[in-house]
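Title: Prediction job returns without error message
Component: structure pipeline
Severity: low
Priority: P3
Assignee: unassigned

Description:
Job completed but the reporter wants confirmation the result is attached to the right record. Sequence as submitted:
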Amino acid sequence: NNHVVRRAETVEVILEDKRSYKAKIVGTDPSTDLALLKIEAENLPFLSFGNSDELLVGEWVLAVGNPFNLTSTVTAGIISAKGRDIKIIKGASALESFIQTDAAVNPGNSGGPTFDVNGRVIGMNTMGRPGSGIGFAIPSSTIQRVVEDLKQGRAVQRGYLGGQIESLSDENAKALGLPNANGALVTGVIAGSPAEKAGIKRGDVILKINGQVVKDNRELARKIAALDIG
């Protein structure tokens, strides 16, 4: 996690067998609380990513980490919710879409993997609320996209729409003849932006992106940011 290394002068990675390596911070992305480290080691075991976009609420997961400096602790739970925006990442560019679980996640779990039942990494533990039974993880789909940019040594690339949007109120939905308040209301369009070129106009309501329902303006922003440029 970026919040673990952001003030570090040096970073050390200690493996399960107690081998220790000095790590290089290849890059960080504060907007998603991710950091990429590199160590000079050979023949390390590795894990495969699963598809976090296909996860269902109620699926079993395992969370691994070092809570309270207790090495390699494993806890189990289920996915309680997806797409959680809990406003813990600071800054206007923050992009939160956490997987919420009830697997115990405590201080020290940060950066540890969240597994599905097949042993694939579907998220990264980022925070928990001690005593609450609630933990949050960054989805693997976000991790893979950000890491690829960091590996290439470039700024993290994100899709951009170019409009002002806000959540749709129930009153606005009724006035527009919509069945519910799902969607994002376009309140302005920036000249020359992709939104303008696509024909999006002030007063439009965006209901879906690539067939996926948009619940509100923050979900719209996350889905746009997740798209490849172009």
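Comment from assignee: result matches the submitted record. The radius of gyration is 20 Å.
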